[in-house]
Amino acid sequence: MSVRHETGDPVALVQLNGDLRHAHAELQSAHRATQRLRVRFTVEEIARHAEPAMLSTAQAAATGLYNFFSSIPPLTENSAARETEEGPDLDENQVLAAIADIAAYMSEQRDKYRLMGEPLDGPHLQMMSSFFSPACWRASVSWSWPSLVSGASKSSARPILTIICSN
Known about the structure:
Layout: H1 10-40, H2 43-49, H3 52-70, H4 77-84, H5 92-114, H6 122-129, H7 134-137, E1 140-144, E2 160-164
Antiparallel strand pairs: 1-2
């Protein structure tokens, strides 16, 4: 369907924006899939081991999408205004206070849930490996004992695994 701005067909314009939202959602999904590939494999590994037809199809689709969306100029005055729009005007003390609040919340949540944590078994460890880079899994791994709550002994406490990724 071709919609001309002069026609002012409100139904067509709603459909256009609905289709654009749908395309955006699917592109976000494709972006996440691409990020998973980037994290798990090097470009050389992809080039060497990918099925040639699948890789060519993916590259052609990405190129076609890039060419299409790049050909659309910013059409509205609102898009220019959005590019220059800034966040709230905070002074340094407000930023530092916000950082402190977030850090305190994260520490509180970590302390609250740390004692409930259990080590991952083989299948769960394998499942989680796709969310971390190979460098992270090869990184420094250390075990520590949580602070013992009253009445608990070290033999009944579970150690906590800490993985430090240094990329």
